[in-house]
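User: I'll paste a sequence; please echo it back and then give the predicted structure.

Assistant: Echoing your sequence first, then the prediction.
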Amino acid sequence: METKILDGSNDLLVMEPKIFGDKRGYFLERYNSKILMDALGNSINFVQQNESFSSIGVLRGMHYQTINPQSKLVTVIHGSVLDVAVDLRLNSSTFGRWFSVELNSELKNSLFIPKGYAHGFYVQSKEVIFSYMVDEFYDPDSEITILWNDPDLNIDWNAENPIISDRDLNGVSFNSAQKFD
C-alpha cells in the first residue's frame, strides 16, 4: 500500500492499495494498522465502521463532532465521489482551507482524515456505496453541519443542483461553527 499526503494539506493521507488480480478477480489490502501508524507516527484504534448508499447527485456534508471528534478512513466500495475535508483546527497552517480528492471503486483508494476536520462528499457516479471507519463512536448530540455552500469556504463541488438533506441545507456558517484548539 502506498500512502501520500494530499496536495496542499499537512495531514490528509491518501492511501492507494496494491491490487493483485487474475482471472478469478482481485485481492487487496484495504487497511493495515502498521502502514497507517508509520505514516502518521501514532496508532489509530478504529471502533466503528459505517456504510452509506447514495445515488448520483447526492451531496452529504459537511459534518463533524465537537465532543468526540472522529478520525476517519473513508473509502468508496462502488462508484465515485468527490470527497471534501475542511480544516477546523485554529492552530493549523491550513485552518479554514478545504481539500478534495476523487475516491472511486476503480482506483480503490482511501482517504485518512484526522480529528479536527469537517467532512462531506458528492456522488459523481450513478450510485455509490461509501464506507468509513472511525476512531470514536457516533455522538449525534455533538454533531455539527457546516453549510455545504458556505461563501467563506467557497468549496468547488463541481455539482449542479445537488440533492441535499434538510439537515445539510440548514447547516451553520463556517464563521459560526465551533472550531478546535
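Residues 33-40 form the longest helix (8 residues). The chain has one domain: 2-169.
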